[in-house]
Amino acid sequence: MPCRHIRATCVPGAPLQAALSALRTGLGVPGSFPPGVLEEAARPPRLPPHDATDIPFLTIDPPTSSDLDQAMHLSRRENGRGYRVRYAIADVAAFVTPGGALDAEAHRRVTTLYFPDEKVPLHPTRLSEGTASLLPDQTCPAVLWTIDLDADGRTESVDVRRALVRSRAKLDYAHVQKSIDDGTAEEPLALLKEIGTLRERLEVERGGISLNVPEQEIVEKDGTYELGYRAPLPADAWNAQISLLTGMAAADLMLAHGTGVLRTLPAAPDGAVGRLRRTARALHIDWPHHVSYAQLVRSLDPHLPRHAAFLQECTTLLRGAGYTVFRGGALPDVTSHAAVAAPYAHCTAPLRRLVDRYASELCLAAAADEPPPDWVLTALDSLPKEMAEGSRRAGTVERECVDIVEAALLKDRVGDIFDGCVVDVMERQPTVGTVQLESPAVVARIEGGTGTLPLGERLRVRLTQADLGTAKVRFAPA
After folding, report:
1. What percent of the chain is modeled with pLDDT above 70?
2. End-to-end CA distance of the chain
3. Cβ distance 97 to 103 under 8 Å?
């Protein structure tokens, strides 16, 4: 599920780059990999017996990405009634020896961390952007999903096995969108729109919601900064539906087999939805009370800056997500993910997320009707805590990066007056709260004044602090 994506073009040595570098140091973000880890990452993988290199897989990722977790091939079924989705996931377990140095380092890092100017990878780049990545014209071990759908896009059968695969093309979203729109896409790619649209209809039917969160971009120009958004294309959403399909299939397999790890999310509390309604009001987005959250999100245009800013804030409703482990046939009380509106599992990004390697092993065992490997069962109970700690670290990185970017954006405007709306007020300190600006779409702390802040009301505010060094942006009632 989405998080806030921020990308920055940093001039070396400039205040923004220096602030991000200091943040990495302050948070104790892992640096280079130890020699023993690098040595293990250089070893050849364990290869599977099944050969699927005849299938012309392709990847769809941002143009600069080289850590390619997924490759797909889409086709019509032979009976002409439905579709076959082949989805190859990088088989990280083929490179990692349980209990070895590489395994231990992955458990220490848990996830890849994304900063606006660089990323801190889960695995050494020789592996994550090299031998294990599904790069074009490279034969790789993969976990191969074959999911047969009916004519409406509903799942009919699932198979998962280890296989050798070979991608034929590395495509980006803009190229995919253009080739589909102008009719030049060949069938394996042209079917992405057809299948993706069917899966989106089923998502609406079951009450799920996908957030097409725009990517924020901050660019330095002549010592000042400008903020913009890159709105996702329809192809982004169609591609995401293939990943969601696989995650749902993985959850169903593990639940049927009685042992697994799910990604779960309870329904958002009323308070969080109330705050989001106030944010909508601050951004002049009409949200009638009879319109559901899902309906509103589907009506938004991420190309509009106000809508883009609101979609960024919608990610706050995902903060209660966690990982739920079960074994021995004793199913957990909560098996569903509220945003997906179905059981769901993380299994499609093992190069960037620790838990996916374990979910793949559990699914392979379930599909073969065999017990999971001992190394998986041994680690299973501790995975939710490890992932929670890793997610908290990633969340801290995200929040601190947002603060730094907003401080950079406003650093030359201290004393200026802005229009905003109070979206939160501290119960014990009613003169302190959170304000959402109309433009630029910044969310920051507001404090001061003699009376209680007017929750949900528009307010003129003065910028009192915007410091990259402390990543603090502060406002006061004007």
Report:
1. 95
2. 38
3. yes
Q: In this prediction, what percent of the chain has a pLDDT beyond 90?
A: 60
Residue with tokens 């076959």: 84
Q: For position 231, what pLDDT does the model report?
A: 77
d(C-alpha 340, C-alpha 345), whole Å? 10
CB atoms closer than 10 angstroms to residue 21:
15
For residue 440, whether the previous peptide bond is cis, meaning omega lies within 30 degrees of 0, is yes
Does 252 have pLDDT greater than 60? yes
Largest CA distance in the chain: 73
Burial of 153 (0-12, 13-18, 19+ CB in 10 A): buried
Confidence check: pLDDT of 241 > 90: yes
The pLDDT confidence band at residue 235, using thresholds 50, 70 and 90, is: very high
The string over 389-424, giving b where at least 16 C-beta atoms fall within 10 Å of a residue's C-beta and e elsewhere, is: ebbebbeebbebbbbbbbbbbbbeeeeeebebbbbb
CB 95 within 8 A of CB 131: yes
DSSP H helices in 258-325: 270-282, 293-299, 305-314
With H, G, I as helix, E, B as strand and everything else as coil, classify residue 429. coil
Amino acid at the residue 234: P
CA distance 69 to 348: 7
Give the Cα-Cα-Cα angle 223, 225, 229 (nearest 5 degrees): 155
Burial of 382 (0-12, 13-18, 19+ CB in 10 A): exposed
Burial class (CB in 10 A: 0-12, 13-18, 19+), 333: exposed
Q: What is the per-residue pLDDT for 49?
A: 94
DSSP string, 107-133: HHH-B-EE-SS-EE-SS-HHIIIIITS
- Asked if residues 458 and 278 have their Cβ atoms less than 8 Å apart, the reply is no
What separation in angstroms does the CA of 233 have from each of 176, 205, 238, 289? 10, 22, 9, 29
What is each CA distance from 107 to 35, 98, 180, 266, 354, in whole angstroms?
A: 17, 11, 40, 26, 7
Six token digits for residue 15: 């205040």
In sequence order, which residues have a C-beta less than 8 Å from that of residue 351 and are 6 or more positions away?
67, 68, 69, 90, 92, 112, 122, 123, 127, 128, 132, 133
* pLDDT attached to residue 1: 42
The number of beta carbons lying within 10 Å of the beta carbon of residue 293 is: 15
Query: Is 46 a residue whose pLDDT tops 80?
Result: yes
8 A C-beta contact, residue 321 and residue 265: yes
